[in-house]
Amino acid sequence: MSSLIAMLSYNAPKGPALFTFFGYISILYSLTAFLQEYENTYEQLSDALYDLKWYLWDTKCQKFHLLLMGQVAQELKIPILFLLNADLELFKRFIRFTYTTANCLLTLRQQNH
Fold first, then answer.
1. Could you give the CA distance from residue 16 to residue 25 in angstroms, rounded to a whole number?
2. Rounded mean pLDDT of 84-113?
3. Of 39, 44, 62, 66, which is most buried with the most CB atoms under 10 A?
């Protein structure tokens, strides 16, 4: 982690670069945490619908329940720019990629000096 901080503050004012980086990380984490919570709520709704005793209802309610079951049976994925699904796994992959990239850039910069 110290190499990441060194990379962000190398040849730049220490405050703005570091705060900007952690600001972006905080925004991405908040977005993915919110979307993960949304997915968890969706899963709880589908579990509750599966647990209902729908077979005791009248035919009209059974048909409506069948429609709902068809909708919640599909897995909920929230795409970002049609490329990635927004979840906490995306946040973990982003952090790993950022850390690896920062270490590579810092190593290259130190070898050139």
1. 14
2. 77
3. 39
Instruction: Look up residue 36 and give its two tokens.
Output: 């993960």
pTM, to two decimals: 0.52
Residue 87 gets which letter from DSSP?
S
Bridge partners, 85 (sequence order): 79
Give every CB contact of residue 17 below 8 A, 6+ residues apart in sequence. Answer: 8, 9
SS3 letters for 19-81?
A: HHHHHHHHHHHHHHHHHHHHHHHHHHHHHHHHHCCHHHCCHHHHHHHHHHHHHHCCCCCCEEC
Query: How far apart are the C-alpha atoms of 1 and 16, rounded to whole Å?
Result: 18
The string of pLDDT tens digits covering residues 18-60 is 667 777 777 777 877 787 788 888 888 888 888 889 889 999 9
| Cβ(73)–Cβ(65) below 8 Å | no
pLDDT tens digits for range 66-90: 888 888 777 666 677 777 776 667 7
